[in-house]
Amino acid sequence: MTHLLVVEDEPNLRQLLVNNLGFEGFSVEAAEDGLAGLLAHRARRADLIVLDLMLPHMDGFQVIQELRKANDHVPVIMLTARGSESDRVHGLSLGADDYLVKPFSVLEFVARIKAILRRTHPLELPTALRSGAYRFDLTAMEAHRENRPLDLTPREFRLLEILITHAGYTHSRTELLEQAWGADARPTPRTVDVHIANLRKKLGDDEKKNLIATVGGEGYRWTLLVEPDH
Ligand code: CA
Questions:
Q1: Residues 107 and 22 in one domain
Q2: How far is the CA of 141 from the centre of ligand 1 (A)?
Q3: Residue-number span of the structural domain to which 83 is assigned
Q4: Which of 111, 185, 196, 214 is the most buried (most CB within 10 A)?
Q5: CATH number at residue 15
Q6: Which of residues 90, 120, 150 is at a domain's end?
Q7: What is the pLDDT of residue 178?
Q8: What angle do CA 34, 37, 40 make, to 5 degrees?
Q9: Number of domains composing the chain
């Protein structure tokens, strides 16, 4: 199982990131400062580290330096403050693999992490899934039905991705809001219903096919078997 380490001193953001990565099926550990992060990584090696740069005691730059000095090339994605271009350049020059500028969407966060993991652990994450007449390319964020492309918005694709990667599981509207819009999402549960309705239309779903089942009052679930498609 892919193990991730989140080093972030802001408790709310840390919890949000840990929850979302856990939901994606990763094993996740969290640390609240640089030193704790390094120790956690030494105790159990992470496959990828999410590293805030501005941390108490030992900052993110020092953490990257320590790792690279020890010849540890674990992928690192930095979280940086808006406008601190020099920080990003510095972090990348020290050997970070990618960065996200705060505030970022959970959607983008998860997508970037998966992109890095696909590069570094190509066998562990499928790049495409197949379900019935549908094929989903998770890297290109494209969906096809009987080889014809479907015109989905990024948000619709993200909703679809959540449903198909957890086929059979019923997602509440709140969960879908958190996963596809982020924690301080302004849209209401009704927004989810509207997006799901559009998605079903684009998929050619109907009551008979019932690909995305509405589970009375609870939420939504993908009903077909989903398999990797390499
Ligand atoms: Ca910080």
A1: yes
A2: 31
A3: 3-120
A4: 196
A5: 3.40.50.2300
A6: 120
A7: 80
A8: 155
A9: 2
pLDDT exceeding 70 applies to what percent of the chain? 97
pLDDT in tens, 43-66: 999 999 999 999 998 999 999 999
Angle at 52 between CA 50 and CA 55, to 5 degrees: 135
For residue 169, is pLDDT > 90?
A: no
Q: Which pLDDT value is given to residue 185?
A: 59
Q: Cα separation of 14 and 217, whole Å?
A: 30
pLDDT value at residue 81:
85
Q: Are residues 150 and 104 in the same domain?
A: no
**134 half-sphere exposure, CB direction, 13 A CA radius:** 26
Tens of pLDDT, residues 151-164: 999 999 999 999 99
Residue 51 C-alpha to ligand 1 middle, in angstroms?
9
pLDDT at 125 over 80: no
- Extract long-range pairs of 84-89: CB within 8 Å, 24+ residues apart: 84/53, 87/53
Q: What is the CATH number of the domain that holds 214?
A: 1.10.10.10
Q: Does residue 16 share a domain with residue 95?
A: yes
Sort 118 into a burial class: Cβ within 10 Å, 0-12 / 13-18 / 19+. middle
How many angstroms separate the alpha carbon of residue 176 from the centre of ligand 1?
27
Q: What is the mean pLDDT of the chain?
A: 90
Distance 195 CA to ligand 1 centre (A): 34
Q: Which of 120, 148, 165 is the last residue of a domain?
A: 120
* Ligand 1 centroid distance, CA of 145 (Å): 44
CB-based neighbours (< 5 A) of ligand 1, an ion: 9, 52, 54
CA 121 to ligand 1 centroid distance, Å: 28
